[in-house]
Structure to design on (88 residues):
């Protein structure tokens, strides 16, 4: 990988016996000071609840999916034979 112009200048100053500017950096310059926290169970459930409630199986309200209902009824004709009539 190529060196940056600033890195080349720092290396040249070190070769010449001058001060290395990286030693003057703050110790916090290289530290990652962000606080990380995992979500609690309650936050994760709340996120799922509001994300897409119609596709979420844990959502208890509203339309919980589709289904097909088909029933056939029988009707006796004059001869005593059952005829199947679809329910529509």
């Amino acid at each position: 990988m190529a060196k940056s112009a600033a890195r080349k200048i720092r290396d040249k100053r070190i070769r010449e016996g001058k001060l290395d500017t990286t030693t003057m950096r703050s110790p916090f310059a290289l530290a990652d000071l962000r606080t990380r926290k995992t979500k609690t169970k309650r936050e994760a459930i709340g996120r799922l609840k509001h994300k897409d409630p119609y596709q979420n199986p844990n959502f208890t309200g509203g339309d919980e999916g589709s289904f097909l209902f088909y029933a056939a009824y029988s009707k006796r004709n004059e001869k005593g034979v059952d005829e199947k009539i679809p329910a529509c």
